[in-house]
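RECORD TYPE: inverse folding
INPUT: C-alpha cells
STRUCTURE:
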C-alpha cells in the first residue's frame, strides 16, 4: 500500500480523498494555490505545499510544480480527484517517469477514452452499443452534410477531444449544419487545442444513464449499478439519482454485464464510468470517464461500498475483494449539487460564507469543504458541496430531500438550493418522468 499520497486537487473532492487515505492509514499531502491556503483539506492534511498563485494554469494545472511537490514531500502516489489533471495522460506519463504512482488508469487508457472517436470504435469492438454516427472525424462541410444526410437529422456535432458539453452543437436541419459545424470546431479548438469533430444521431428525449465500474490489475471487474444523470443544464449535471427511476432489473443486469466484460477486455484499472444515452429501451454509448465522478456518492449509498477506498486499493496493485454477487442495490439515493450561483440566472456568486449549517438525520450526507467564514474564491468551479440523500424508496428519498433542503443554511452568497426546492414540486420530477432536455425547457419557461 502507498505510504504517502499527494492530493492534486482542491475543494470537496480533495477532502474526500484525504478521508479515504486516512482510513487506510496513508499520510496525505495537500497542494494548494495561494487562494486556498485556508481550505479545509489543507488544514487537515498531514503536510501541505503551496504550488502557485490562484489561476489554475499556474497552480492546479502546473505539472512541474506538482511533481516538485511530490519530490519535496516524498509522496509515492498522486490522487488527481476529478477535473484539473484527472484525465491528463501526459500527467500520468510524467508521474510514472518519476517513479510516482498515478491513482487512476494507465495513461494509454486515459488517452484512448479522451479521444471520443477512437473511444467509440474501441468500445464498439468490445460489444458496447453506440449511437449511430460518423466513422471518424469530419474534415469539411460537404463531407459532414453527406454523413448527416445518411444518419438523418437532427444530428449532433461533437468535439473529438471534448467533454463537459464544450464543442457540442445540434443541427436540426441541413440549413443549420454549417453554423453548428463551424461553431463546434471553434469551441473545440479554443477549449482543447483540437478542432476535430464528429457526428452522432441526435436523440430527442433520451435519459443520461451511466454505469459505475471498478477494476483491478488482475482481471477482476465489477459494476455498482447505474446512475441517472438526466437533469442537466448546458450539458452539466445538476441532480443525479440511483438507481434510475426507469430501468428494469433485467436492463440493469444486462448493461452492467456488457460494461464489465468490455472493461475486462480493455484491461482497464481503477474506477471508471461508462455513460450512455437511453431511449426506448436502447442504450447508446456517449463516453467513458476515466476518473472518480462528482456523483459517485449515490452509488456508495445504495451499495455500501466506499469507491475512493477501493480505487486507492486497486491503484496500489491489490486484488479487489468484491465479487459481483456481493454487490446489492438497496434503497434509493439522490444527489443535488449545491453551487454558489444565483438560482435563476446561474451567475456565479463568490464571496464569504457568513453562516453554514448542514442538514442531518437518517440518510442525509453532505460532502463539502466549506465552513462558516470561508471565502469562496472566484477562480474555480462554483461547487459548494453535494447534498446526498438515501432512503428505502424513491418517494421517501424525495421527502427526505425536501426536509434536508429546508434545514440547509448558507448565508453570504447565492446558492442553487431554491432551485431544488422548486423542482421537488414538479410532477415530472416526482414521477421520474424527465429527460436530458427537461431542465433547460423548464428553466426557459420560468
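DESIGNED SEQUENCE:
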Amino acid at each position: 500500500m502507498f505510504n504517502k499520497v499527494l492530493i492534486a486537487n482542491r475543494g470537496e473532492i480533495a477532502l474526500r480523498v484525504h478521508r479515504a487515505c486516512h482510513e487506510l492509514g496513508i499520510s496525505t499531502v495537500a497542494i494548494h494555490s495561494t487562494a486556498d491556503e485556508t481550505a479545509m483539506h489543507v488544514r487537515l492534511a498531514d503536510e501541505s505545499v503551496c504550488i502557485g498563485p490562484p489561476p489554475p494554469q499556474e497552480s492546479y494545472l502546473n505539472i512541474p510544480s506538482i511533481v516538485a511537490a511530490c519530490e519535496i514531500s516524498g509522496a509515492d502516489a498522486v490522487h488527481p480527484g476529478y477535473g484539473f489533471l484527472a484525465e491528463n495522460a501526459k500527467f500520468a506519463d510524467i508521474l510514472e517517469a518519476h517513479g510516482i504512482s498515478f491513482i487512476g488508469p494507465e495513461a494509454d487508457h486515459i488517452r484512448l477514452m479522451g479521444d471520443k472517436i477512437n473511444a467509440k470504435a474501441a468500445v464498439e469492438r468490445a460489444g458496447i452499443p453506440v449511437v449511430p454516427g460518423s466513422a471518424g472525424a469530419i474534415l469539411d462541410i460537404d463531407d459532414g452534410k453527406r454523413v448527416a444526410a445518411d444518419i438523418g437529422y437532427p444530428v449532433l456535432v461533437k468535439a473529438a477531444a471534448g467533454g463537459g458539453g464544450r464543442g457540442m452543437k445540434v443541427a436540426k436541419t441541413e440549413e443549420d449544419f454549417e453554423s453548428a459545424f463551424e461553431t463546434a470546431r471553434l469551441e473545440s479548438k479554443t477549449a482543447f487545442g483540437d478542432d476535430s469533430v464528429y457526428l452522432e444521431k441526435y436523440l430527442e428525449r433520451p435519459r443520461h444513464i451511466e454505469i459505475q465500474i471498478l477494476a483491478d490489475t488482475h482481471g477482476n471487474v465489477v459494476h455498482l449499478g447505474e446512475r441517472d444523470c438526466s437533469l442537466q443544464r448546458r450539458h452539466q449535471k445538476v441532480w443525479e439519482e440511483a438507481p434510475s427511476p426507469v430501468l428494469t432489473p433485467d436492463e440493469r443486469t444486462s448493461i452492467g454485464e456488457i460494461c464489465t466484460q468490455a472493461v475486462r477486455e480493455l484491461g482497464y484499472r481503477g474506477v471508471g464510468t461508462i455513460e450512455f444515452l437511453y431511449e426506448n429501451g436502447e442504450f447508446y454509448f456517449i463516453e467513458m470517464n476515466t476518473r472518480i465522478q462528482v456523483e459517485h456518492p449515490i452509488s456508495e449509498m445504495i451499495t455500501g461500498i466506499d469507491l475512493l477506498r477501493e480505487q486507492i486499493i486497486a491503484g496500489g496493485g491489490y486484488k479487489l475483494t468484491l465479487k459481483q454477487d456481493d454487490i446489492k442495490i438497496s434503497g434509493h439515493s439522490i444527489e443535488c449539487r449545491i453551487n454558489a450561483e444565483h438560482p435563476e440566472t446561474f451567475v456565479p456568486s463568490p464571496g464569504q460564507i457568513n453562516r453554514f449549517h448542514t442538514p442531518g438525520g437518517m440518510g442525509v450526507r453532505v460532502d463539502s469543504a466549506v465552513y462558516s467564514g470561508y471565502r469562496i474564491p472566484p477562480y474555480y468551479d462554483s461547487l459548494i458541496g453535494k447534498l446526498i440523500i438515501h432512503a428505502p424508496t424513491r418517494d421517501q428519498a424525495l421527502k427526505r430531500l425536501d426536509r434536508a433542503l429546508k434545514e440547509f443554511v448558507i448565508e453570504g452568497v447565492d446558492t442553487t438550493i431554491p432551485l431544488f426546492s422548486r423542482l421537488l414540486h414538479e410532477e415530472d420530477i416526482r414521477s421520474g418522468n424527465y429527460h436530458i432536455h427537461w431542465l433547460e425547457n423548464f428553466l426557459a419557461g420560468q
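NOTES: The chain is about 35% helix and 25% strand.
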